[in-house]
Specification:
35 helices
Length: 931
């Protein structure tokens, strides 16, 4: 914090401190403690503590006679001009040598509330992602800068993205305005920044639209709103403040964060003084209440939260006039009669609002709370024929029927959710109506037509779905498909069966193919008089633990078998595939298939539905909504197959006349010469990424056979022209798992060459070498390819990371004409020599691990109450310093032994004051052995 500015703000906003300015020092002292005690691992905790000190734990004994009074750090009300707003350019922190340089820092009253990183608009591969990556690195190296942080943002002049501290970069989102959601130009970035970075919005986000939550492993994380949640929640708040209209319908597409929208709205409504301590009711559509919404509220550390799981609890809550946030289910209102509470500052937010039609639940709610506000939320569009839902929630003022809408295409564009594909299966796995009809006619001879049709409805479908032959075929197909196409990329799946009995039959068959640990059934086991399903009877806690186990990437549980449960409100981003073997349509179908559309790292490009029923043979019939564009939610994966040859041709078109049969260096050089500048490389890289994702989605498939050799060649070129540092992550990303496997099977990557005579050249002989050597240019290219190979080989080593950055800077200078070809070669040669030397000094990873393990054991053995040393810290200090001073064969030289002894002494004796000769000697022996 900028202490003089903080002090001025405290004096300006608090008359008691203005009267006694020394009080400001007491407050700053407390703040300083929170900021200075931060470590990278507890940044989110300290960030939350800072927010608490501003808004909750802000009472000090500064009143008359030492009375406790709240003090203000910011003006958050109507007079925001009382705050001091500053934008800085190139802020350096810490001030001493080697401080980090932050492009933009926004200060309010002396607190750095936002950090922005800008990237070049001229290089296509460099994007906002690189800026976000820089901020992520700063959070680890200078966490003090981020304790007061509200949000961070990044841009390359085409896209604007923001996120909160420690937020995974793939979850950073855009900020759009309702009128304009286009992206790609500086004007668009300007509009987004101008819309978000305004005093009233930044303060609103700080106070009401950031949350702190705890995950299942008890780790804190911070949540910040997406723009559509901010917009939707504030529309609710504005309506409640205005008092009219007393209802509204919000349609935000499945998976785009409706639960959090409700949390933000509830939080803000509860904190608005003009609403006189309102009651907020979250109404869920599930019978068991244990859904995503409840989970979202429970993990968010929100005060005054209560749930009503029974009619009595619901009645006593309203009759006791409680002023809290209540979570209950829609079905509880079906059990109450008459008025529960006539107050007008009760606000209901009803999830999956279309369910209110069932049994006139909407009307029951209206009667129970006659003067309340009713807001309906839905992830699927409501049809005009559904009069009841519009009657309960739709305000006539909203011409389109919705007060806020966030469509499927909005959510794909913003990367809030992923596109969906379906895959048709061989026809013999589809339900064959004709055979069943013939068998049925034979069975029912002599019955009246009414009797036959009633029996038909029940028997037909069951006969088909439970035929052992069909189950065997379908399960065989599921296992082969999962093992070949889904498992290699680390994703998991859901199998949706016709009914509970089918779940058991499928489980038995799948167990015989995959083993028992790979699958489980999650189902409602009520009304199970025969105890058929008792093995899968679990309480909420056990079911929650099981699903968390499923979400873990390393757990052996790969497929969850369901029939009705987990088809709505179940959130597992690792879930990519749904094997659908149950007839469904409209709302139920759309909600179910969207289980697979959650974003998960950079590797997951889409959700996939394998359709065993033939539901998507006619998408228009399956998803019959007034909003016809909902039918574009899912496309046939055959479309991707159709596009692949064109994607392949586009990538190959960068290399006219290049002979793709030439192996090794010669082939690579010819390909690289076809991509002379960064512009061509980046354009090729972007096109290859599209091809790579399509290949990963389709593989394995016999259709890909004829394209394999060209794809491998393109992959090799892509890897060889990738920037040597980590820039350009949106275009120059890691290859997919199936491509890597293909490369390993087929490509012998050019190994680093030790015999390059060019490496032996001295700098002053280079001019001569260029003059007398007719293939000098070729030699330079060879040197560059070799250098990149060395850098790649040691990806994580800090020295090689730095070499990669220096190589990219050098390439850029050469391309921009800032240095001549001879200067480029001289500098390239320097880098190549450094890389060759560094490579000799690299210790194999497994040896280092053994060394660290031995040292850890040694220091653990001497740890006791009188020497409470932190073993991990000592070992990593020793490891770090020895790596710096060691060199190959140091054990055989006097100088080497002296250097290592001195380094070890500086850690063990001087830093940690362990003056035990025996321990020192053992530690030295281990280092000698393993380093």
């Amino acid at each position: 914090m900028v202490e003089p500015m903080v002090r001025d703000a405290l004096i300006r906003l608090n008359p008691e401190i203005a009267a006694r300015p020394e009080y400001a020092d007491d407050v700053i002292y407390k703040l300083r403690a929170v900021i200075l005690s931060v470590q990278p691992h507890n940044l989110v905790t300290q960030n939350e503590q800072f927010k608490k000190m501003i808004f909750e734990e802000n009472s000090y004994p500064f009143g008359k006679d030492g009375r406790i009074i709240p003090i203000r750090f910011f003006e958050t009300g109507t007079d925001l001009k009382q705050n001091d707003y500053i934008v800085t350019n190139q802020w350096v922190f810490p001030k001493e040598e080697g401080g980090k340089r932050l492009d933009i820092v926004l200060l309010i009253n002396g607190f750095p509330v936002a950090v922005g990183e800008m990237k070049t608009p001229t290089r296509n591969a460099v994007t906002w992602l690189d800026g976000a990556g820089d901020i992520s690195a700063y959070e680890k190296s200078i966490p003090q800068m981020f304790v007061p942080n509200i949000f961070n943002f990044a841009s390359e002049g085409k896209h604007y993205r923001f996120g909160s501290v420690n937020m995974p970069i793939n979850l950073w989102g855009p900020w759009h305005t309702p009128e304009n959601k286009s992206e790609g130009t500086l004007a668009d970035v300007n509009r987004s920044a101008a819309a978000m970075i305004r005093p009233e919005i930044v303060m609103d986000i700080f106070q009401f639209f950031t949350l702190f939550a705890t995950d299942k492993k008890f780790r804190k994380y911070k949540v910040i709103c997406r723009y559509q949640q901010y917009e939707g929640a504030n529309l609710i708040v504005e309506r409640v403040k205005a008092g009219y209209p007393k209802k509204g319908l919000i349609w935000h597409f499945q998976g785009s964060g409706k639960s959090l929208l409700m949390v933000f709205a509830a939080q803000k409504l509860r904190m608005m003084p003009e609403l006189k301590n309102p009651t907020v009711v979250i109404v869920d559509d599930r019978i068991d209440l244990e859904t995503q919404i409840t989970a979202t509220f429970n993990t968010s550390d929100i005060p005054n939260l209560q749930s009503a799981g029974s009619k009595d609890e619901l009645e006593s809550f309203f009759k006791g006039d409680m002023r809290k946030i209540l979570i209950t289910t829609i079905f509880k209102f079906g059990e109450v009669d008459g008025v529960l509470n006539p107050r007008d500052n009760i606000i209901l937010m009803v999830d999956e609002a279309h369910r209110t039609q069932e049994g006139d639940l909407g009307e029951k709610m209206r009667m129970a709370l006659p003067n309340a506000f009713f807001f309906g939320l839905t992830g699927t569009p409501i049809n005009r024929t559904d009069k009841n839902t519009f009657f309960t929630f739709g305000a006539t003022e909203d011409r389109s029927g919705y007060m806020s809408r966030y469509s499927f295409s909005d959510s794909i564009r913003d990367h809030a959710t992923l596109p969906l594909h379906f895959e048709a299966v061989p026809v013999d796995l589809h339900v064959n109506q004709d055979i069943v009809d013939a068998a049925f006619n034979e069975m029912t001879e002599g019955l009246t037509s009414d009797e036959r049709s009633e029996l038909a409805r029940r028997v037909k479908m069951e006969a088909i779905m439970k035929s052992p032959e069909r189950i065997r075929k379908v399960c065989g197909h599921i296992v082969k498909h999962y093992r070949d196409k889904i498992e290699p990329n680390g994703f998991k799946g859901q199998v949706v069966c016709y009914d509970r009995e089918c779940c058991l039959l499928y489980k038995k068959e799948l167990d015989s193919l995959l083993g028992e640990d790979a699958t489980t059934i999650v189902m409602d086991t009520n009304n199970d008089k025969e105890g058929k399903y008792k093995e899968f009877r679990r309480d909420r806690h056990a079911e929650g633990k099981l699903l968390d186990y499923f979400r873990e990437p390393g757990s052996p549980l790969k497929l969850v078998i369901v029939t009705a449960k987990l088809l709505t409100g179940f959130d597992a981003p690792i879930l990519q595939i749904m094997y659908l073997d149950k007839p469904m349509k409209d709302h139920t179908l759309l909600q179910a298939i969207c289980r697979t559309n959650r974003v998960y790292g950079q590797e997951k490009s889409h959700g996939l539905i394998v359709d065993y029923i033939g539901i998507f043979d006619d998408v228009a019939k399956a998803l019959d909504f007034d909003e016809k564009n909902v039918q574009q939610v899912i496309t046939n994966i055959a479309e991707v197959k159709r596009q692949l040859p064109a994607l392949m041709d586009k990538c190959l078109s960068y290399f006219p006349g290049v002979d793709r049969t030439v192996e090794g260096w010669e082939g690579l050089m010819a390909a690289q010469e076809a991509l002379p500048t960064n512009n061509e490389k980046d354009a090729f890289g972007a096109d290859y990424r599209v091809l790579n994702r399509a290949w990963e989605a389709l593989s394995p498939d016999p259709f890909l056979g004829p394209h394999k050799s060209d794809y491998l060649w393109l992959t090799k070129v892509y890897e060889s022209v990738k920037p040597a540092d980590n820039r350009g992550g949106l275009i120059w990303a890691a290859l997919g798992a199936k491509t890597i496997e293909l490369v390993h099977q087929n490509v012998t990557v050019e190994s680093v060459r030790e015999d390059m005579e060019i490496l032996k050249l001295e700098a002053d002989l280079i001019d001569e070498f260029f003059e007398h050597n007719k293939d000098a240019k070729k030699r330079v290219k060879e040197l560059e390819i070799d250098l990149v190979a060395r850098i790649r080989k040691h990806g994580g080593e800090p020295r090689f990371v730095r070499l990669g950055e220096r190589l990219e800077e050098l390439r850029e200078k050469h391309e921009q004409g800032l240095i001549t070809s001879i200067e480029f070669l001289k500098m390239l040669l320097e880098l190549a020599k450094e890389a060759a030397q560094a490579e000799k000094e690299v210790v194999p990873e497994e040896e280092l691990d053994k060394g660290k393990a031995a040292l850890t054991e040694l220091f653990n053995s001497i740890k006791n109450d009188s020497t409470p040393i932190i073993v991990e810290r000592i070992v990593s200090d020793i490891d770090a310093i020895v790596k710096i001073v060691r060199f190959d064969g140091w054990q055989n030289t006097t100088a080497g032994k002296q250097e290592v002894t001195k380094a070890l002494r500086s850690v063990v004796w001087i830093k940690y004051k362990i003056k035990d000769n025996d321990v020192f000697n053992k530690a030295y022996k281990y280092i000698e052995m393993y380093y």
